[in-house]
Amino acid sequence: MGGRKKQSLLNGALVLVVATAFVEIIGLLYKIPLTELIGTVGRGYTGTAYNIYIPIHNIALAGLPVAISKLVAQSIAQGHYKDVKKIFKIAFRLFLVAGVIGTVILLAMAYPYAKSMDNMASLPSIIMIAPAVFLCCVMSTYRGYYSGLRNQNPTALSQMCEVLGKLIFGLGLAFIVQQYGINCFEQGLPVFGTECATMDEAILALAPYAAAASIFGVTMGAACSLLFLVIRHKTVGDKITDEELATAPEAKSGKEIAKMLGAIAVPVVISTLVMNITNLIDSWSIQARLQTAINSGLSTIEEMYASALSLAGKMSNTQLKSYIYGAYEIALDFRNLVPTITTTLGSSAIPVLSEAWTVKNKLMLRSSIESVVRVTMLISLPAGMGMAILSEQLQQLVYGASSSISISAHVMAVYGSFTFIMAISQPLINMLQAIGRVDITMKSVSIAAVAKVVINFVLVGIPSININGAIIGTFCFYLIVVSVNLTALIRETGVKFNFKSVFFKPLFCAALCAIAAWAFTGIADKLLPAFEINSRICTTTVSAIIGIVGAVVVYVLALLFSRSIVAEDIKMLPKGEKICKILEKYNLIG
User: Fold this and answer.
1) What is the pLDDT of residue 1?
2) What is the pTM of this model?
3) Residue range 18-23: average pLDDT?
4) Could you read off the pLDDT of 513-530 as tens digits, one per residue?
5) Does a structural domain hold residue 248?
6) Do 479 and 532 sit in the same domain of this protein?
7) Are 486 and 503 within one domain?
8) Within a domain: 77
9) Whether residues 351 and 235 fall in one domain
């Protein structure tokens, strides 16, 4: 094994979880002042840009990182170290091409996409984010390679570089653009070509350009991350030794390796293509149908969101659409937190399960699959319930007393109730990819995608449902994906889950955690004296923090006394053996 140390599944996942938590915390720190800078309407513009960027970004990146990770892990398990080196070279070239094509497609689609959505104000944001596709493609070659070597440290550090670059450049540039626009208004000049009578009009006029400046931070963050990976690879390398290379069989031809990469990557690309084209259509249809709902039932929607709109002020129908959609996007900041963290379990599972499948190690296969599902439930169930119960308080804690909080808090609460289904979806897909059944994931995603588009199109256009239709469509999508893939994984691997260990115990502990969050928050709210330093630091938010801390304590105690933590999982962590002995001594481990 040379100078390399292979990380266990949970050890590698822990590294990525820490990095992901850092990324999400910094991301929230980024979004708080960003929302204040560009407003809810500005968030609607950035959301529109993301909705075309993410599908193209995901399609350009789809398949190859999974293929690299899987093939590298298989080659390492077989001692084919020369193949490992060649896989990286071939993949790098393929990703360069994919990155260029992805960026060109995004730039070419920018104008017609913005025009079709009657949202030309989002065009500058789309253009500013386009180069990030190329940078992320090249970056993912390195990440997939190190994942296959079962070393998640370079990926984790590069993610931190990426989010810090996004924070510094995104906020800095947005602030500069906003100040420029305000200065123009104060001097009686047009604000980016628009004559403005009031400061509110000036803020709306500069919002598209401040949003574009903020989203350019995504591109700069990707550049910072890629620079780190290139320097690290040049200086540290992959630690495959000359001795390992000398004793390894000759590498396969470039053509053969490209075929092997394609055999894994193409089905993943197709499923990602289906899902992301669906999301693109979905994004367009949600906003188009939301506009239809507003035009046909304005009074119904104004009545539904009366408290929010009374604070937001007078808006045109188009601005109202961006306002509601922007509130929905704000809720998605929270919705994606837990699935983003649990996705790391799926990423870490690919090389481990690929190796176990290659050498037919059934024990490693069973323990790894059970660990992924159990740990996902242990994370997602309490987090989702907490989001559902404390949605409004969490929104206020992060974004302050925004006018749209009643809309976004409702969306967040509903998503929180089925977070565990969203959280397990990607790990299940990754585990099927690791054992070579990418065809199953492709079918499940395709079926779910069609259902989602139809449900969203029908429901969002109904004034009494409007944006809530998107939540229903999302729930149906993930329910179909998880049902099909979980059934297939059990059938293909022959693994029989201990449902008491992987689901019922975590559910019981999560329920206690949720009750504790509700109780502690309610008690604190009544006992604490009423105060308000600002919209974020007040009785409501301090009570919520007390509730969260109390819930975490109750959850940890519930896990220990119900013996929901399993020895196999603990042993995969750093210092796991020592921790395991301590817990076994007090009979606190399953």
Assistant:
1) 47
2) 0.74
3) 82
4) 999 999 999 999 888 888
5) yes
6) no
7) no
8) yes
9) no
The whole-angstrom separation of Cα 422 and Cα 344 is 14
344 & 198 share domain: no
Boundary of a domain, candidates 452, 479, 497: 497
pLDDT, tens only, 258-310:
888 888 777 777 777 777 677 777 778 888 888 999 988 888 988 888 877 77
Give just the sign of the alpha carbon dihedral 16, 358, 89, 133. negative
Asked whether residue 258 is domain-assigned, the answer is no
Q: Rounded to a whole number, what is the largest CA-CA distance in the chain?
A: 77
Q: What is the mean pLDDT of the chain?
A: 85
Q: Specify if 293 maps to a domain.
A: yes
Q: Is the pLDDT of residue 209 over 60?
A: yes
- pLDDT band of 19, cuts 50, 70, 90: confident
State whether 138 and 182 are in the same domain.
yes
Q: How many CB atoms lie within 10 A of CB 508?
A: 16
Rounded CA-CA distance 181/191 in Å is 5
Q: What is the pLDDT of residue 65?
A: 79
Q: Which residues pair with 538 in a beta bridge?
A: 532
Q: How far apart are CA 229 and CA 137, in angstroms?
A: 12
Structural domain boundaries, residue 549: 498-590
Specify whether the CB–CB gap between 146 and 110 falls below 8 A.
no
What letter does residue 149 receive in the DSSP assignment? Answer: T
pLDDT in tens, 228-251: 999 999 998 888 888 888 888 888
Question: Are 452 and 424 in a shared domain?
Answer: yes
DSSP 565: S
In Å, what is the CA distance from 139 to each residue of 40, 99, 211, 218, 419? 32, 10, 25, 14, 29
Number of domains in the chain: 3
Domain end, chosen from 204, 234, 252, is at: 252
Three-state DSSP at 128 gives helix
- Cβ-contact 279, 51 below 8 angstroms: yes
